[in-house]
Write a structure and sequence with these properties.
The chain is mainly α. The protein contains 15 helices and 4 strands. About 75% of the residues lie in helices and about 5% in strands. The chain has a 4-stranded mixed sheet with strand order 1-2-4-3, with helices on both faces. Helix 5 runs antiparallel to helix 6 and helix 10 runs antiparallel to helix 12. It is globular and about 65 Å long. It binds zinc ion (ZN).
């Protein structure tokens, strides 16, 4: 059983890697040297060539990073690396909670340090070469430190909570953990903009002026409070632009990147805003939250059945079973289910995007929204002709051409 589990984990890792590379390959195949007819009028020749170069550089880079982590995890598994770390934390302390914190702390930090050269290359070489990077070395280092602290507080807290529930609550484990996780997810959804975002970015209310007047005009029509609209300094890290809706109830807000406000015309900005208000009116955040809670429920239920089996830890080479080794093995085994969940979540997310587009179109902003989306896609050198299977697995948004066609034909089902 232990051997079978070990080889099942290896098989899953190989399958994941091959699937990812196969999808990358399909995307590479669907690139074309000449600008395709459907993109004429969107990309000009020169920008199109640049977008193809950017796509190819990123594909090559993902080939290298993906292969590196693939080999790394195989080496760790075949050399009993997890068991080695396990015996190290056992030698440090008797307390199993401390052991678990140390185990995941060292593992997380170690993995981050190993992948850091790739992160640095991606940001300061590739993104810089194509004119996107605005991140300074100081911002990069500060982001790292903040995300480690955040990971330690949130990840450590959740780990301790789940471990405590496992040790103390017996048959109530699933119920207690799901209750706790649901409260945590609802809290994070509501306070994400207030608690997490300010650690990394500045959010400011919109400045007085024509843009604000135009936005007030639309917001009143659509019934969305102007106080909930903010601008964020995305330009601190990248020239790429974005906008999103977050939170719920009184804590909801729409956040527009300063780069978006700079790149788009006033009407296009209002059109993007109309799309975001659509996400709010159609309750997409709440639907997403419910989906996450259901997903976690499934995961915790499977975990509760698996974690009591000592074979999980032993499959990774541990001499005696432990909660944290069980979690690692479970995480590796759960990966195919999480791929399937990802496909499903992306499918719903793409449908939500169409619905928010239809909402904006209903207020007469369809044309401006298309123009705005085209500008944003061209500015970020997006791949506008990805392979459909790649989209099926990985895209949370429909492609620009799909959205454009849906808005033009007023048919959002494709
Ligand atoms: Zn959207």
């Amino acid at each position: 059983m232990v051997q079978t589990l070990f080889w099942l984990i290896i098989a899953i890792i190989i399958f994941d890697y091959l699937l990812e590379k196969f999808l990358d390959y399909l995307n590479y195949r669907s690139m074309q040297y000449e600008i395709p007819d459907e993109l004429k009028g969107i990309y000009n020749e020169e920008k199109y060539k640049r977008s193809q170069q950017y796509g190819k550089v990123n594909l090559a880079f993902s080939m290298i990073t993906g292969t590196f982590s693939f080999i790394l995890i195989l080496v760790i598994l075949f050399t009993n690396g997890f068991a080695f770390l396990d015996s190290y934390v056992i030698s440090i302390t008797q307390n199993e909670y401390l052991r678990a914190l140390l185990f995941f702390g060292i593992l997380g930090l170690g993995m981050d340090f190993i992948s850091m050269p790739f992160q640095i290359y991606g940001t300061f070489v590739i993104e810089a070469k194509f004119g996107f990077n605005k991140t300074t070395a100081i911002t990069f280092v500060m982001d790292k430190i903040k995300s480690w602290l955040l990971g330690a507080v949130i990840g450590g807290g959740l780990l301790l909570f789940i471990m405590w529930a496992w040790n103390e609550t017996g048959n109530w484990f699933w119920v207690i953990v799901m209750g706790g996780l649901s409260i945590f997810m609802i809290f994070m959804t509501m306070f994400y903009s207030r608690l997490i975002v300010p650690l990394f970015n500045k959010q400011t209310p919109l400045e007085e002026g024509d843009l604000k007047l135009a936005i007030v005009d639309f917001s009143e029509k659509a019934g969305f409070k102007i106080d909930n609209i903010f601008s964020i300094d995305g330009s601190k890290r990248s020239t790429k632009a974005n906008a999103y809706f977050s939170g719920m109830g009184p804590k909801k807000r729409i956040v527009l990147y300063d780069t978006l406000i700079k790149d788009l015309s006033e009407k296009e900005i209002v059109a993007v805003l109309a799309h975001e208000v659509g996400h709010y009116k159609l309750k997409h955040v709440i639907i997403g939250l419910v989906m996450s809670i259901v997903q976690s429920g499934l995961m915790i239920w499977l975990l509760s059945m698996a974690i009591s089996r000592p074979e999980l830890s032993l499959a990774l080479g541990a001499l005696s079973p432990s909660f944290y080794m069980g979690i690692v093995a479970f995480g590796l085994l759960f990966s195919p289910i999480s791929t399937v969940i990802g496909i499903f979540t992306n499918m719903i997310s793409r449908r939500h995007e169409y619905q928010a587009d239809a909402f904006a179109n209903g207020y007469g902003y369809g044309g401006e929204l298309i123009n705005g989306l085209i500008k944003l896609s061209v500015a970020s050198l997006s791949n506008l002709t990805p392979h459909w299977l790649y989209v099926f697995f990985n895209y949370s948004h429909p492609t620009l051409l799909q959205r454009k066609n849906a808005i033009i034909t007023n048919n959002y089902t494709s």
